[in-house]
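Exercise (ungraded).
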Amino acid sequence: MERLEDPPDVVIRRLPLYARSLRYLLDEEIHSVSSQELGERINVTAAQIRKDLSYFGEFGKQGIGYDVEKLLNHIERILGLDQSWPVILVGVGHLGQAIARYDGFHSQGLRIVGIFETDQHKIGQKIAHIEITDYALMPKVIRDTDVRLGIIAVPAAEAQSVADMLIDSGIRAILCYAPIILQTPDDVWVRYIDPVAVLHSMTYYLARENMP
Amino acid sequence: MERLEDPPDVVIRRLPLYARSLRYLLDEEIHSVSSQELGERINVTAAQIRKDLSYFGEFGKQGIGYDVEKLLNHIERILGLDQSWPVILVGVGHLGQAIARYDGFHSQGLRIVGIFETDQHKIGQKIAHIEITDYALMPKVIRDTDVRLGIIAVPAAEAQSVADMLIDSGIRAILCYAPIILQTPDDVWVRYIDPVAVLHSMTYYLARENMP
């Protein structure tokens, strides 16, 4: 088979949005969609969608559009979502608790299989049926369960040492909620959830509206 | 004054990360930094930093680097952070409560001034010293206080109607935690916090590692 060019990361980041939008279409019992219609739903141009998908093969037919279910299945397979992914969570402050209780993970192929915390008062309690485990036991659990995705929900001052321990224990991809840029090896994926930075990227535009 | 070219949005999104990194440098009492050093901290090339900053004027000197405090002040001014921004929050489920309690907003020029909810059992209670207010009163509060930033932390099924009401009442920028793409007018800024999509963009790479 001819090997296609590797897609840039920005394309990979858009695929989950395509998948989500296609899922909504299926819920609405819409079984066929043009790149134009799909684009309008996610604020991406039709040309961008066609270009993004072209990295992964041939989809849709000129004038007919995409078969929603087929395209969704294909994108889910590309994203590795034909399997379920175990995830561990470190930190159960207010944010960690909200993450642990969020039912959107489970329905989307992501299972939280371990919750770790240093606070002895919280260890042993349960959140969403999962027992909070002593952080000291985390390396062993990661090795025993072969989990490779980790979520960091600890304060910024502790995030780097948590990341180090996650990576040492075998975690290969980290979602970090702490407002810090982690120093990590090149073969580990790190993404950030950073509401303050996102809000600041909008205050830029709002501040401009006030200018003469 | 010569008018500089408008910076692309991707540059605006990086500015808050530059600002944060500069703040950390100041905390460490580092007062001068090269684009190389700054870049290493945020995983951006030195050339990218120089190019990004060039949209806003002349900073730093060849061989001397940037004055950390001056550059920080300048970026904060660019982002509109020489003023404090009122923000309202809609929804106080687990996530909304974690957002309301997050102390990272206040220290970064963002003040939550109103929390709104439809659940009559929660209305009147306080989170982080702010009283939860009846959602029906939201339009009046937005108009009276001239707040223009809103955070949506309601379930996906309610997010669009909340966004519509926010925008009708005068909100100009929305941070949406619901897993949905909002339909909004062109003159309203919308950004998303979407941990599932972000995790899915990493399962793509992890799934590839297993391939023969």
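Further reading is listed at the end of the chapter. For now, observe: Chain B has a mean pLDDT of 92. The two ends of chain B are 59 Å apart (CA to CA).
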